[in-house]
Fold:
Amino acid sequence: MKTYVANSSDRERNWLIVDANGQTLGRLATQIADALRGKRKPTYTPHVDTGDFVVVVNAERISVSGNKWSDKRYDRHSGYPGGLRSRTLEEMLDRRPEEVIRLAVKGMLPRNRLARKQITKLKIYAGPEHPHVAKQPQPMEINS
Structure:
C-alpha cells in the first residue's frame, strides 16, 4: 500500500465561517490554524496546501481570561533606535480587532513559505457583515 500524497489537482477547498462572539482567543486561533492547514481532513499532507478558506466575523467580541486585557502586549519595532512601540490587547481591539486574531493564528502556523500562503486564506471582519456571501461559507464547528 502506497502513502497518499495530495496534489493541487485533487484538493478540495471549502469556505468556512466562524462567529468569534464570546470565543476564547487562543482556543479559537488553534482551531482556525488547523482548518487553514487542512489538518481536519483525511487528505492532509504537510507540504501541500490542502486547507480551507476561513471567514471570521465579530472579531471585536472575542473574550480572554484573567488580566490579559491590560497585561497582554503587542510589540513592534520600526528598525530605528528607540523605535519600539507597544500596545495592550484592549488598545488593539479598539484600533484593529482583526489584527488580534490574525496575529494569534499566525503564531500557531509554521514559519515557512507554505504558512505565509496559508494565512492569506484567512478573512477576518470586526462586525457581523462580510463580502463572501457568494462563496456560501459553511459554519465551522468549534470544539469547546
In short: Residues 24 and 64 are 5 Å apart (CA to CA).
